[in-house]
Structures are given as C-alpha cells and as structure tokens.
Amino acid sequence: MGSRSYLIRFCIERDEDGSLFGYCPQLEGCFADGEDMEELAKNLKDSAHLYLESLVRHGEDIPTGECIRLLGPKQQRFISDICCERQNYKELTVVL
Questions:
Q1: How far apart are CA 72 and CA 85, in angstroms?
Q2: Is 29 left (phi over 0), alpha (psi -120 to 50) or beta?
C-alpha cells in the first residue's frame, strides 16, 4: 500500500501560562502543546502521525469525518468549521 495523506483539523487553545495546546476531537488522546504556533504544529503533526500509525498497526480503521479527511491528489485542503466550535484551529497534513 502506498502512502496516504490525511488532512486533520486541530482545535487550538491558549493555556493560562501562555503556551498553546491543540487536540483533534475525533482522535481521543491525540494532543500536543508548544510554546508558539510553529512548535505546536510540529508537535501536533508528530502526535497525529504516531496515533494514526498505531491504528494501522493494530488493524483499526482511521476515522474520517468532521475533523479528518483522506486527501486525494486534487482534493481541496479545507475542512468545514463544524469540527471546531472555536475560531482557533490549525489544519495539518499527515502522510502515512
């Protein structure tokens, strides 16, 4: 099987100490933090990659829906605002 690209929308929040925290509502337990948006994006991408790899390794399906989309070669890279009720979000592409 070749590689697949998934577009994942993460909800972003700012902690009381000023650091950033992100999570994907459809991937329970998939979250990360960072001091700034660059660090947060890297950490979220790493976290999601490990999470999705674990699903595949255990024979589980990768969920798709409001916050996760399997990208085709010419597919639009946008997920509707339904996923995050908050305005703050970050969309990242994760390749398996």
A1: 26
A2: left
